[in-house]
Write a structure and sequence with these properties.
Elements (H helix, E strand, L loop, with lengths): L1 E6 L4 H11 L4 E7 L11 H4 L9 E2 L2 H7 L2 E4 L3 H14 L3 E3 L6 H10 L4 E4 L5 H16 L4 E8 L9 H13 L4 H4 E2 L14 E7 L5 E8 L4 E8 L3 H13 L6 E3 L1 H5 L10
Parallel strand pairs: 1-2, 1-4, 2-3, 4-5, 5-6, 6-12, 7-9, 8-9
Antiparallel strand pairs: 7-10, 10-11
The structure holds NADPH dihydro-nicotinamide-adenine-dinucleotide phosphate (NDP) and the ligand O=C(O)C1=N[C@H](C(=O)O)C[C@H](O)C1.
Subcellular location: Cytoplasm
Protein name: 4-hydroxy-tetrahydrodipicolinate reductase
Enzyme class: oxidoreductase
Amino acid sequence: MLAVSIHGASGRMGKALVGAVRENDTFKLAAAVASASDSRIGQDVAVIHGFPYLGVPLTANVPETVQKADVVVDFSQPYASLQLLRTCAQQRKPVVVGTTGFSAEAKAEIEEIAQTIPVVLSPNMSVGVNLLFALARIAAEAMPDADAEIIEGHHRHKIDAPSGTALRLGETVAAARGTTLAEAGVLSREGFTGPRAPGSIGFATIRAGEIVGDHTLLLATGTEHFELKHKAFDRKNFAEGALRAALWLPGKPAGLYDMNDVLGISGLNLKLG
Ligand SMILES: NC(=O)C1=CN([C@@H]2O[C@H](COP(=O)(O)OP(=O)(O)OC[C@H]3O[C@@H](n4cnc5c(N)ncnc54)[C@H](OP(=O)(O)O)[C@@H]3O)[C@@H](O)[C@H]2O)C=CC1
Ligand SMILES: O=C(O)C1=N[C@H](C(=O)O)C[C@H](O)C1
C-alpha cells in the first residue's frame, strides 16, 4: 500500500481525495494537513467530511506529515503549496500539485525544486481536460486566423481567475501559433475596449453557484464557429486523476512532470487529413 498525505485536506478537493483514497485499496491515508488556524485541527479528517472514522487527525505539522508519506498530494493555496514543496525537497519526497494560481516567480521556484525531487504539476487532473489541451493545439494550428476565446465557469468560492486550466488552454493556443500568452492574452475586458485585436486570445470568466468546472475553447472565423468543450460534474474526477499521478510518480527521476506524462499522452501528435 502507498502511504499518501493530503495537503489541503480540509477543502473541497480534500474531501474528494479522502473519498477516493477510501475507495482505493492501493492507498492508505497517512496524514491530512489543514491550515494552522483551522478550528478542526485534531479532529478525524474522514469524520469532518461526513465519512466513517478513519483514525487520521487533521494536523498543521507539515514536516511530520511529509515524513509519514510515500507521496504527497496537494490541493491548497499557492503560498501553502510552495512551503510544502520546500519541505518535500528537504525530505526528498515526490509530490503531486493540483493547486492553481501560482505567480511567475512561484512557478520558477517550483521548476527549481523539481530539479531535486519528482513533481507532477497540473492545473487539471482529468483525462478529458488533458485531451482537450491536445485537441486545442491541433485546432489552433488548423485554424490559425480564427479568433480564439476561452470561456470558463466555476463555483462562487473559487479565488483565482482565469482558472489554471483556462490559462493552460490559452498557453496551448498561443504556442500553437508561435506566440505566448503574455503577448496575445486578453484576460478580461471592460469599458471602451476598441475592436478585437487580431491574433489575440480572449478570456471570459463565470463564477456562479456550485459549477464544478466548465471550459470551452471557441475558434471563430467570419463564416464558422468551432468549439471544444469540457464539463466536470464531480470532483471525484480530479481526485482519481491525482491518485493516478500519485501512483505513477514515486521512483521517477527528479523533474517537473505534467498530467500528460502520467496519462501517457505527452507525445500525442494527432494529424489532420
Ligand atoms: N488540478 C486540478 O485538477 C484541480 C485543481 N484545483 C485547485 O486546487 C486548489 C484547491 O481547491 P479547493 O479544494 O476547491 O479549495 P478549498 O478552498 O476548498 O481548499 C483548499 C484548502 O487548503 C487549505 N489550506 C490553506 N492554507 C493551508 C496550509 N498552509 N496548509 C494546509 N492547508 C491549507 C484551506 O484551508 P482554509 O480554508 O482554512 O484556508 C482549504 O481548506 C485550488 O487552487 C483549485 O484551483 C481544484 C480542483 C481540481
Ligand atoms: O477551483 C476549482 O474548483 C478548479 N480549479 C482548477 C483550475 O483552476 O483550472 C481545475 C478545475 O476546473 C476546478
